[in-house]
Design brief:
Radius of gyration: 18 Å
Number of strands: 11
Order of helices and strands: EEEEEEHEEEEE
Number of helices: 1
Shape: globular
Strand content: over 45%
Number of domains: 1
Structural class: mainly beta
Low-confidence stretches: none
Strand order of the largest sheet: 4-1-7-8-11
Largest sheet: 5 strands, antiparallel
Length: 168
């Protein structure tokens, strides 16, 4: 039996395009009480009372979201691993404590790219800290800071998100 799908094609996009991410919002997965999905787009996020997303800011041009298909034809498995790399300059005790909290958390994340598109991570399973480092640098011109990678494993690519992110 063939595995056929209804295909529609993709036309060439002639509009402007810009790489990178602008903002990242993170919340504890347990604080999200519901997510509304309409036509495969997150259109609403409801939080538990007094809970909210927190913004994580970083230097422009330092952070990224990369999603890769993981396929094993022999086993018949397909899933997507999405890695959110966040780079924070100037390591300090406040950032250290926040990264230690991220290391223990099960999260949901909204990433806004530089095209203004938001991507929702954590719909199928919580996002977890997957790696990172703290570096002082060697020379005076080296970067001093903390790098963190958060990972989502999902049956699909990240979901587009048009919902207002509850930050207050």
């Amino acid at each position: 039996m063939a595995c056929s799908q209804t295909l529609a094609g993709i036309t060439r996009d002639c509009s402007s395009n810009m790489g990178g991410i602008k903002k990242v919002y993170i919340a504890n997965a347990a604080d999200v009480t519901s997510v509304t999905l309409t036509s495969n787009v997150v259109t609403a996020i409801t939080m538990a009372s007094t809970k909210k997303f927190y913004e994580y800011a970083f230097a422009l041009g330092t952070s990224s979201l990369t999603s890769n298909w993981q396929v094993n034809a022999e086993n018949g498995t397909k899933f997507v691993e999405s890695d959110l790399l966040m780079v924070f300059n100037k390591a300090d005790s406040t950032k250290r404590l926040e990264i230690m909290a991220l290391a223990q958390a099960e999260m949901v994340v909204v990433v806004e790219d530089n095209n203004g598109t938001q991507w929702y991570l954590g719909y199928f399973e919580p996002v977890l800290l997957n790696g990172g480092d703290l570096q002082t640098g060697t020379a005076r011109g080296d970067r001093n800071g903390i790098t963190v990678t958060l990972r989502e494993s999902s049956p699909e690519l990240p979901l587009p998100c048009t919902a207002t992110v509850p930050t207050t």
